[in-house]
From TrEMBL:
Pfam families: GST_C_2, GST_N. InterPro entries: Glutathione-S-Trfase_C-like, Glutathione-S-Trfase_C_sf, Glutathione_S-Trfase, Glutathione_S-Trfase_N, TCHQD, Thioredoxin-like_sf. PROSITE patterns: GST_CTER, GST_NTER. Residues 117-251 form the GST C-terminal domain. This is Glutathione S-transferase TCHQD. GO terms for molecular function: glutathione transferase activity. Residues 1-80 form the GST N-terminal domain. PANTHER family: GLUTATHIONE S-TRANSFERASE TCHQD. It comes from Acer negundo (Box elder).
Length: 267
């Protein structure tokens, strides 16, 4: 089993948390979307959407995050002989889909200085054009990614797009806060795949230094956040990369790569 992912990718974090929680062994391949590695023809042929993560088990390839997590759960059940393990309840699945409906893209980019967003966007566009020249048979799919990059730039200029994303997030957090007044975890008294799907959302807010604005002001979520950070899966998947100096190391390493490649015009 192979997982193509990156620590920056929120959906990748969800899948990796599921793999760690279920104790599934897999081969890890880092594909950094900020440096355009998801546009390399070898990856692009496998997944023309170029989105992360991608899960491969033999000839079976899955791109949808929720489908990957549910597939991992089925693998875990088969591996354990289903002893003491049950499939996720309807409530868990509903929470997973509800959380997945929030797209963090515009919210995240709106909290990154515009000059950096534009610089990365231009770099990615040049990567796409370079890969298009290398693999003309994929030109149609690459053109779609180029169009998507321009559309993202335009939407970021629209206050309404960012406002809708923020309002959606607030509604989700308020609903979670209400739920956590009744239960320890998102779908009951036991940690579940619903929590696996939600934890990276909180981690993204902390990464953007927005913890005080969105987490601390909600006492139940704040207590929940402190609790889930103690799990070994969190420490391995997220804490390892984004706590303390490691956060700056991860971000600076990527930024330096992009700057050097841009200066050398090697895309």
């Amino acid at each position: 089993m192979q997982l193509y992912h990156h620590p920056f990718s929120l959906d990748s974090q969800k899948v990796r948390l599921a793999l760690e929680e279920k104790g599934i062994d897999y081969t890890s391949y880092h594909v950094n979307p900020i440096t355009g590695k998801n546009m390399d023809s070898s990856f692009f042929r496998m997944n023309p959407s170029a989105r992360l993560p991608v899960f491969q088990n033999g000839g079976h390839i899955i791109f949808n995050t929720i489908e990957i997590i549910m597939y991992i759960e089925r693998i875990a059940m088969v591996s354990s002989g289903a002893d003491g393990m049950t499939i996720s309840s309807r409530e868990v699945v509903e929470w997973m889909h509800k959380i997945q409906e929030w797209n963090p893209k515009y919210f995240t980019l709106s909290h990154v200085p515009a000059k950096y967003c534009l610089y990365i966007s231009k770099f990615i566009r040049r990567v796409v054009i370079a890969r298009m020249a290398e693999s003309p048979d994929l030109a149609g799919a690459y053109h779609l990614k180029l169009k998507e990059a321009y559309q993202t730039e335009e939407k970021l200029k629209s206050p309404d797009a960012v406002k809708r994303s923020k309002e959606h997030l607030i509604r989700l957090l308020d609903e979670v806060e209400t739920q956590l007044k009744e239960t320890v975890y998102l779908a009951g008294e036991e940690f579940s795949l619903a929590d696996v799907t939600f934890i990276p959302v909180l981690a993204r807010l902390v990464l953007l230094d927005l913890g005080d604005d969105y987490i601390s002001c909600r006492p139940k979520i704040a207590a929940y956040w402190n609790l889930v950070q103690q799990r070994p899966s969190y420490k391995k998947v997220i804490g390892k990369y984004f706590h303390g100096w490691r956060k700056h190391k991860t971000l600076i390493k990527t930024w330096c790569f992009v700057r050097i490649r841009s200066m050398l015009r090697k895309y």
